[in-house]
Amino acid sequence: MPDPDPRFDSAIDIAPPPVDAEPSVNADFPWDAFDSTAYFEHNYSSLRADDEKIIDIVARFFQDNELRRLRPQAIDVGAGANLYPALMMLPFAAELTLCERAFSNRQWLEAEILQPHPSWWQFWSHMNVGREAYRPIKNPFDLLGRRARVTKGNIFSLPPGRYDLGTMFFVAESITNRESEFVRATRSFVNSLKPKAPFAAAFMRNSSGYRVGSSSFPACSVDEDDVRAALAPVAGGVTIQTVESKSLRDGYCGMMVATGFKKA
Ligand SMILES: C[S@@+](CC[C@H](N)C(=O)[O-])C[C@H]1O[C@@H](n2cnc3c(N)ncnc32)[C@H](O)[C@@H]1O
Q1: Which stretch is the leader sequence (predicted)?
Q2: In a domain, 210, yes or no
C-alpha cells in the first residue's frame, strides 16, 4: 500500500498559521512606539475632576502612613507620560524609580523631569492644599529632578522585595487583553515592595482598550472584584474606591484606586 499523502493525514495537526491575528499578550504590542506627547496632551495637559479625586485618596493615604520618616526607595511602575504618581510620593522617598518598558516614554520622562510642562503645577497645587506632608516642599520640580531616575524595566520581571513605597497607575489592566497577565502584573508590582510597604494602584474600570496617536493598545476589562482578587494573595489592608470618570474617551466605566500594604 502506498504511503498516505501527509497533507491529508488527519492525525497531523496542520492548522493554518493565524492570518492577521489580533495581538493579545503584552509582548505583542508596539510599546516602543507609544506616542508620549499625544498621551500627555490627552490625559494630563490639564487637571480633571477624576484625577483630583484620585489625588485626594492617594495623597491622604500616603500622608497618613508615611509622615514619620523618609523612605529610601520608591517605584512608579509603567510611569508612561504621567508625573503625578511620582509627585505624590515625593515627600516620602529619597529616590524615585520611574520604571518603563517603552523607549519613547523613557525619553519623554528623562526630558520631562528636567523641564516639566506647566500643567503639573495644577496637580501639585491640588496635592499641596491642606496636606502638611506636601506643604514644606516649595520647589517640587527641582526636588523631583534630583530624586527621580528613569529606568528600563518590565513589570513582569521586577526584583522582588526591593522598594519601600510604590505606585502603579493604569498599567496592569492596560497592557494586555489577558486576565492572567493582569493578575501576574498586579502581583509582580506588589511583590517588588518590601513587606508592609504601602502602595497605591489605579485601574480603568471595564475598559475595552484605547488609542494613543495612531496606535491601538489593549485592556483587560476588570472591576472591583477582579482587583480585590488579584491583590488578595500579596496585599493586606486593601481599600478599593471607585472614581467617577466619563470624559476621557469611550469604552470604560470609571476608574478604581486601590491602596494597601505588601503582606508581611
Ligand atoms: C495606559 S499607560 C499608563 C501610563 C501612566 N502610568 C499613567 O498613569 O497614565 C500604560 C503604560 O504601561 C507601560 N507598559 C507596557 N507594558 C509594560 C511592561 N511590561 N512593563 C512596564 N511597563 C509597561 C506602557 O509603556 C505605558 O507607559
Answers
A1: none
A2: yes
Residue 214 resides in a domain: yes
pLDDT for the residue numbered 5: 46
180 sits in the region (left: phi over 0; alpha: psi -120 to 50; else beta) called: alpha
Whether residue 123 has its Cβ less than 6 Å from ligand 1: no
- Provide the domain count of the chain: 1
| pLDDT tens digit sequence for 169-192 | 999 999 999 999 999 999 999 999
8-state DSSP, 33: G
Atom of ligand 1 nearest to the CA of 202: 8
Contact 99, 175 (CB under 8 A): no
Structural domain of residue 45, as residue ranges? 28-262
Distance CA 242, CA 96 (A): 27
**80 Cβ below 6 A of ligand 1:** yes
